[in-house]
From TrEMBL:
<keyword id="KW-0812">Transmembrane</keyword>
<keyword id="KW-0472">Membrane</keyword>
<feature type="domain" description="Kazal-like">
    <location>
        <begin position="344"/>
        <end position="399"/>
    </location>
</feature>
<dbReference type="InterPro" id="IPR002350">
    <property type="entry name" value="Kazal_dom"/>
</dbReference>
<dbReference type="InterPro" id="IPR004156">
    <property type="entry name" value="OATP"/>
</dbReference>
<feature type="transmembrane region" description="Helical">
    <location>
        <begin position="279"/>
        <end position="300"/>
    </location>
</feature>
<dbReference type="GO" id="GO:0016323">
    <property type="term" value="C:basolateral plasma membrane"/>
</dbReference>
<feature type="transmembrane region" description="Helical">
    <location>
        <begin position="468"/>
        <end position="491"/>
    </location>
</feature>
<feature type="transmembrane region" description="Helical">
    <location>
        <begin position="312"/>
        <end position="331"/>
    </location>
</feature>
<keyword id="KW-1003">Cell membrane</keyword>
<dbReference type="GO" id="GO:0015347">
    <property type="term" value="F:sodium-independent organic anion transmembrane transporter activity"/>
</dbReference>
<dbReference type="GO" id="GO:0043252">
    <property type="term" value="P:sodium-independent organic anion transport"/>
</dbReference>
<feature type="transmembrane region" description="Helical">
    <location>
        <begin position="155"/>
        <end position="176"/>
    </location>
</feature>
<dbReference type="GO" id="GO:0006811">
    <property type="term" value="P:monoatomic ion transport"/>
</dbReference>
<feature type="transmembrane region" description="Helical">
    <location>
        <begin position="240"/>
        <end position="259"/>
    </location>
</feature>
<comment type="similarity">
    <text>Belongs to the organo anion transporter (TC 2.A.60) family.</text>
</comment>
<keyword id="KW-0813">Transport</keyword>
Length: 580
């Protein structure tokens, strides 16, 4: 937990070391002074306010990529610490929980744990959305709309808040012992059952035998390279665990790529700002995950379905998720029609002599339906930077009375205005997209707790921590890390407008919405279908699993009172071993 706190603080350091950036500084100065001449200080911002016949010097600054090395290094260190923290906390933590409670009550406790874990990412989306709605320098307020793709949110603010909160909440964890009393009692019961079996077979073993047995067990679980190799061989020969490993890795490869680009997709497809995108993403995760966790935890705790029912349901959920992604592919808004140099077009004739560049600054004509690539391509020659959002006037391609004629400039007395940003679009697609996603995520969330129980019960007690750690490593190396890279490379093929500076491509300003929609949903649907192979393997070999510790209870109930009385002296000896 402290490692996570350190990573949060480290992730925010680039802002304190390097500041908000020159673009943010210039934007704030323009907002406070209204002095457009300040644009001359930055080549990048000069093109952002590019008007018809505005003069640009076309001078490129030298490549300063080396100046980003410090920020990249700090962010890498932060992610490195997060990787260590996740591997430790969610492998040892779950094992510690399972070791100190009864197996039949584990679904209830794990449900509570899941609810808390669900609240974490949800609050992360809410906090992130709130921070992104604040300008990167909270003391300033530029004339840029939050929906504008050039809006710079306070990305660093949430890391500071979370880092300080984690320092406070991690301190109580130091006060827990290595083993709770419940663990010692369970180990004592195992030794007593062994003693009873020995007595039935005619063996009379006392304290020295069990003491040597405890020492042998300790040597076998000692963290050495030899024991690690032996334990890994046990795990990879375990068909149920291997099936779970494959399914978890591939499914998280699919879901991680999708969730990484979902906010960008909502911005591009439904014209939602980064703040709104994070808000709706967090809201969907909160409601459906809580409902799914409560339902599945309650069913597993009180109805206790057999292992085949649990694993079979996981197969159904995977298929249902695939269908959900395919359904989302058909829900969207009409393709955005931009007047300008898009898809091979050279732009309207009415602004052909304005000297426009490829800098993308969308503006909406006063008819609220026509979207221009930039104020320059709308033929605007005057801008009011004190207005919010910025208003452009004397636009040669925008009429104040009738439909514009792009073939020739509009007469001066009929020229209209344009406003920075996208035009409002009457599209109900977002409601149906949100509804389908809630249904899909609700169903998929009901399989998490059952899948966790199957994973823990498929390995021996001494291998639980290692099994969870290995799975964490696999889903990080082959799921979380490559997913954004792979999905990003595929999604880039749908980009139609790149941010270019001195011939170098930067961020994508505008996507082909139809192509983007198909890529974002077909790729995870295919990967989820592939992960189905692992679920089928788990289902096939899961018939003999003891999910709720019922077999151990049956053994306890079959013990006779007489035998327990005979073993009382040995119980005292075993108590001493456990305490030692």
């Amino acid at each position: 937990a402290l490692f996570t706190a350190a990573s949060c603080i480290t992730a925010a350091l680039p802002h304190f070391f390097y500041g908000p950036g020159e673009d943010a500084v210039v934007a704030a100065r323009i907002a406070t002074s209204g002095d457009i001449s300040l644009l001359n200080n930055l080549t990048g911002f000069k093109t952002e306010e590019e008007l018809c016949h505005s003069q640009t010097d076309g001078v490129c600054q030298e490549d300063r990529g080396y100046s980003y090395f410090g920020s990249i290094l700090l962010l890498f260190i932060a992610q490195f610490f997060v990787g260590i923290a996740i591997s430790i906390f969610f492998s040892i933590g779950v094992t510690y929980l399972d070791d100190n409670i009864k197996k039949k009550t584990y679904p209830l406790y794990y449900t509570l744990t899941m609810l808390i874990r669900i609240l974490g990412p949800v609050f992360g989306f809410f906090i992130g959305g709130k921070c992104l709605s604040i300008w990167i320098d909270p003391t300033k307020r530029p004339n840029i709309d939050k929906k504008d793709p050039r809006w710079l949110g306070a990305w660093w603010l949430g890391f500071v808040f979370l880092g300080l909160a984690l320092v406070v909440t991690s301190l109580p964890l130091f006060f827990f012992p290595r083993k709770l009393p419940a663990t010692l009692k369970r180990e004592k019961k195992k030794m007593l059952r062994q003693a009873e079996r020995d007595e039935q077979e005619g063996w009379n073993r006392g304290l020295p035998y069990f003491l040597s047995l405890a020492k042998t067990k300790k040597e076998e679980t000692k963290p050495t390279l030899k024991n690690l190799i032996i334990a890994l061989k046990r795990l990879f020969k375990n068909k149920i665990w291997t099936g779970n490993l494959f399914s978890a890795t591939v499914s998280l490869l699919a879901l991680s790529g999708y969730w990484s680009f979902k906010p960008k997709y909502l911005e591009n497809q439904f014209r939602k700002s980064a703040t709104e995108a994070n808000f709706y993403t967090g809201l969907a995760s909160l409601v459906v995950s809580v409902v799914g966790a409560v339902i599945s935890g309650s069913v597993l705790r009180w109805f206790r379905p057999g292992p085949r029912y649990v694993t079979g349901y996981n197969v159904f959920v995977t298929v249902f998720t695939c269908v959900g992604f395919l359904a989302l592919m058909f829900v969207g808004c009409p393709k955005l029609d931009v007047i300008g140099p898009v898809n091979g077009s050279v732009g309207p004739t009415c602004s052909a002599d304005c000297g426009c560049t490829e800098k993308f600054t969308p503006v909406c004509a006063q008819d609220k339906t026509t979207l221009f690539y930039s104020p320059c391509y709308a033929g605007c020659s005057i801008d009011n930077t004190t207005a919010y959002p910025i208003v452009y006037s004397d636009c040669r391609c925008v009429s104040n009375s009738s439909q514009p004629n792009y073939a020739a400039p509009i007469p001066e007395n009929e020229r209209g205005r344009a406003t920075r940003g996208y035009c409002p679009e009457p599209c109900n697609g977002f409601f149906y997209y949100f509804l389908i996603q809630i249904i899909t995520k609700t169903v998929s969330s009901t399989s998490r707790i059952g899948g966790s129980i199957v994973l823990l019960r498929s390995v021996s007690d001494e291998d639980k921590g290692l099994s969870l750690g290995v799975i964490t490593v696999f889903i990080s190396l082959f799921g979380f890390i490559p997913a954004p890279i792979i999905m990003g490379a595929i999604i880039d093929s749908a980009c139609v407008v790149w941010d270019k500076s001195c011939g170098i491509s930067g961020n994508c300003w505008l996507y082909d919405s139809e192509k983007f929609r198909k890529i974002l949903h077909v790729v995870p649907a295919v990967l989820m279908f592939i992960s189905l192979l692992g679920d089928i393997v788990v289902f096939h070999y899961s018939g003999t699993l003891d999910l709720y510790g019922l077999k151990e209870e049956e053994i306890e109930q079959n013990k006779t009172q007489g035998k327990s009385e005979e073993l009382k002296p040995l119980k005292a000896d075993i108590d001493q071993i456990c305490k030692a």
